[in-house]
Amino acid sequence: MEFRLENKVPMSAQELWQTVQTPGFDAFVAKELGLYPHMRLERESSGYLIRRRLSISLSNVGLPRITRKAANKVLGGDEIVYEEIQGTHWDRFQMPWKIRPPVLTKKFHASGVLRLAPIDESRCLRIMEGRIHVGLFAVGSLLERMIAEQAKSISDQFSDLVTKWKYENAKCGRS
User: Fold this and answer.
1) Which of 19, 124, 140, 151 has its CB 3.0 to 4.6 Å from that of 136, i.e. a possible disulfide?
2) What is the pTM of this model?
């Protein structure tokens, strides 16, 4: 399943690009979206590549109970540890990404690109395009749709999260 999500963000492309690369913003977004316990287990960067190993508890992701139960059965637990690989092109506001799950590596593929397109001095367009493939008989396309819906829900909230981030940082005297 291919997807494309875009939304206007109340921050310049340069400022947003610098902000999304910080652990503080990462933690803020995860907390606001109720993804805790969300834990960064590792983070390595070399050149333009960033590799992060993350742990996310499914019990807090807001999935319906039946979906969580099915995911538990497939994944063998309530917690997902996955690897996210990002290739950051600082000069182009572009970040290719790929997710490598710890199990079902031949059955699950997710990759794409996140881009920022400047609109004016204080706004940009955040564009996420990608492809999700879950090769599991009878449930693959259902899981693909659920993942895409979750990504859309997060994308729909992103502008509000940036506004709140800016407000809280201005309140604390940070910019």
Assistant:
1) 140
2) 0.75
Q: What is the CA radius of gyration of the chain?
A: 17
Which residues make Cβ contacts (< 8 Å) with residue 118, sequence separation at least 6? Answer: 12, 13, 93, 124, 125
Q: What whole-number distance in Å separates Cα of residue 146 and Cα of residue 93?
A: 28
For the stretch 61-83, pLDDT in tens is: 556 666 666 666 666 666 666 66
Domain residue ranges of the chain, discontinuous segments joined by +: 2-171
pLDDT in tens, 46-57: 776 777 676 666
The CATH code that applies to domain 2-171 is: 3.30.530.20
Write the single-letter amino acid at 71.
A
Q: N- to C-terminal Cα distance for the chain?
A: 38
Report how far residue 145's alpha carbon sits from residue 148's, in angstroms, rounded to the nearest whole number: 5
Alpha-carbon distance of 14 to 10, in angstroms, equals: 12
Distance in angstroms (rounded) separating the CA atoms of residues 151 and 92: 23
